[in-house]
Amino acid sequence: MDLLKTQGFVLIDVDVVALNNAGKSSSTNFDNGVATKTISKNGSKFTYVSGQAWRYWWRETLRKDFNWDLSPITRESKIAFTDANPLKYADDDVFGYMKAAKDVVLKEDGTPELDSKGKEKKEDVTVTRISPLKNSVLVSVASTKTEEHWSSMARQDGDSVPYSKEEYSAVMKGMFSIDLAQIGTFATYNKTGFKNLTSKLQEEGIANGCSTIDDSFVKDAKGIPQKLVQLPKQTRLKRTLDTLKALKTISGGAMQTNNMGDVTPKFIILATTTSGNHPFSHIAKAEGAFKNIAVLNIEAIKEVLEDYKDQIKGRVFIGKRSGFMDEINNDLQSLTSDNVVVTTVNQAIEGYCKQLETQIV
After folding, report:
1. Where are the domains of the chain?
2. Is residue 173 within 8 Å of 10, Cβ to Cβ?
3. What is the dihedral of CA 122, 125, 126, 131, to 10 degrees?
4. From the first residue on, what is the mean pLDDT of each consecutive set of 10 residues in the chain (361 residues)?
């Protein structure tokens, strides 16, 4: 099995937003003050959106724009889990899960089986799945100064109720990776992180069109490869392409009512590699006396394309939206070659998805 990975890098460009809040602000005189998420590095402050929030936007976009039926969530005491059925629910497959539970053992007639003490027998049905889709946070490329802006609720009788929020403008970067061999392919052996399916789901999958393939990397005590359960190619391909195409319409973020921001990529790189390491992590940087100007490092992109040429499979697709960093248009076009396509964001996504149709087997 080829261990191919989709490696993606994006830049988003937002103005006067508060995409991911951090709870009550401790630096305001207002009782109802809300802080935004920030982080410090080398003495400078950067705004960011948590990886969990970005994944939430992504999942919701797949639900709304691609009609994904999301896995239902069960809450028990202090824990919550999805249905953990990646055969039925694409988001369980792509985003992963952990479900620690025990089910009552049933007889053939459907009644509970009892133990020697007359209690219902239960079997451990704990399953976990490492997400094939991995992503970073979205973090501002350059240092960012947040501004406290105040508002008030004044439509009621009596005094107005003031509140404040932190807002900012920033170019933000993010990375993601998709394990192409893992989507739609499930381990069933009893090892932490590898038991993706219960025995019942394994049987259902095989009975409904799934195939079994050898795991090239995990063998039992006799040296025999463990078996994996795999969905049909078209199902695996659709889930992968939907996940990527969702970036064209992804939306989300806190305070969208008054601070609506467009969080679709304004710049994107997509490539298929044989390496799990993300090669495009440092192609954006901050310049200026205060490191407050975000720029795209063309020389760094050239370096990656050269250094990783043996690990990159197929063509690299680079997309940029007109009106965003237009000063680098000529430099970007100079990257065009037989192996590099420079186009618009949506066309880059579509072109890469077309390439994946030949890479997923």
Report:
1. 5-96+131-184+231-359
2. yes
3. -170
4. 88 95 66 83 94 97 98 85 95 94 71 75 81 98 89 70 84 98 91 83 94 87 88 98 98 88 97 93 92 95 96 98 97 97 98 97 91
